[in-house]
What does this fold into?
Amino acid sequence: MTLSRPRVAIGAWSAGCLALMLLGCGAPSRPAPAPAVAQWPRVVLLSLDGFRTDYLERPTAVRLRALAARGVRAERLVPSFPSKTFPNHYTLVTGLTPAHHGIVANVMHEPTLGLFRMSDTAAVRNPAWWGGEPLWVTAEKQGRRTAAYFWPGSETAVGGVRPTWWYPYEHTRPNAARVARILEWLAMPPAEAPALIAAYFSDTDDAGHSFGPAAPQVDSAIARVDSAVGAIVDGIARLGLTEVVNVVIVGDHGMAPVAAERAIVLDDYLNLSTVEILDQNPVAMIVPRDGDVARVMAALAGAHPRLQVYRRDALPASYRFAGNPRITPIVAVADDGWTIATRAELARKTSWGGAHGYDPALPSMGTLFVAAGPGVAATGHTIPAFSNVHVYPFVAALLGVRPARTDGSIDSVRAALRPLH
Ligand code: AMP
Ligand code: ZN
Ligand code: ZN
It folds into this structure.
C-alpha cells in the first residue's frame, strides 16, 4: 500500500495547525515558519493497562512525568462502563461508548455469533462483534498507514480494513520486543512509516490484580512501562522526530484494592444453576436461563447493600450503557473494592489484590492521559478530567485526519491541543 496523499512540508508549528485546519478551524493568520521536516504529523498511542491516575505520582513514573511536563496531562481519564479492558480499549480508538461500538464486556454472548471471550482468537477476529470505526481504519481510509502492537480490535478487519501492521495477541511478548518494533516503524522512510502506531502494555494491570494497587510490585510494574515509554521517547529524539511524532499515553481503567471481608457471595441469594453469568466480577452480567428476569431481580435486588442490581433498561444514565442487545437482561455492579464471587470460588481463593469494572466515576477507576508532541499544548498543565470517548477526536486531530462521527468531541479536549497562534 502506498500513501495516496502527497507528502507536504510542514513545520513544528504547522503540524498542529494542519490538524485543526482539516477540522475546519480556519487558516492560520500568519505564515508558517520554514519547514523543519517534510512529513505528516504522526502519533504513537500507548495504552498502559490498569494504570490508575495516581500512579503518575508514584516514584517510578519518572519518564511519564517528564513527558507530561513538556505536554499535558489530565486530572483523570474517565473510563466507560464497564471499566474493563476490551470495552475501554475499543472506546479509546473508536470514540464510541461500549453500547455503541458493541464490545459491551470482556465476555459476551449473542445468539447468532455465540460466545465472545478475549482468549478466543476466532471470536476476537470476527468483525461482526466490532462496530464503529477504529482510528487505524479512519487513517487507512484516508491514505495513511497504521500499525498496532496489540490492541483489542486490531486483529479484526473492521469494515474490511485492518492496520497495515498488526500482531496476534501474545501476553508474554517482552516489552523490549514491542519497543524495538515501534522504533523500527518510527525509523522507516516517511512515505512508508505508519502515521499511527498503537501499542499495549499489560504490566500495571497484571501487578494490580495480583498484589493490589498499593503494592511495591505495582511500583516495579510502573517502572517497567515507564522505561518502555522512556525508550520510545528517546528513540523519537534520536531519530530527529520530536517535531513530527506526538506521544499520547492512556490507560483503560484504574484499580481498586479488594479484600476477603468485602465479598458478596452470589449463591447466598441465587440458585446459580438457574442463571448464566457471563462476566462476573465486579460486574455480573446475568441471563436467567428460563427468561424469568423478575424472579432473578426479586432474588438479587436489595439482597446485599454493596451490590447494585439493574435491569438492562434501567442502568444509571451516567453509565451510558443502554440499547444494545448484547447487554444481559440483568447487570449487577459491586461497590468500590467489593468482590462478587461464588462460595466455591471464595473457598479456593488464597490471595487478594485488586479489581476493576466498577462505576467509572469512582476515582479508583480513573486512569491516565499524558500527551506531548508538536500538536500538543506544551504547557505542562493538567487539564480537567474527561471521558475516554474524547481520545478518538484528539488523536484524529493530531493526525490531521477527518474523524468519523462519534460520541466524543474535540471541544472537550481542545485545551490539550497546541493553540493555533
Ligand atoms: P481484564 O480482565 O479486563 O483485566 O483484562 C486484562 C487482560 O486482557 C490482559 O491480562 C490480557 O490477558 C487480555 N488482553 C489484553 N489485550 C488483549 C488482546 N488484544 N487480545 C486478547 N487478550 C487481551
Ligand atoms: Zn484493562
Ligand atoms: Zn485487569
User: Anything to note?
Assistant: The domain at 263-352 is CATH 3.30.1360.180 (Gyrase A; domain 2). Residues 49-50, 85, 205, 252-253 surround zinc ion (ligand 2) (CB under 6 Å).
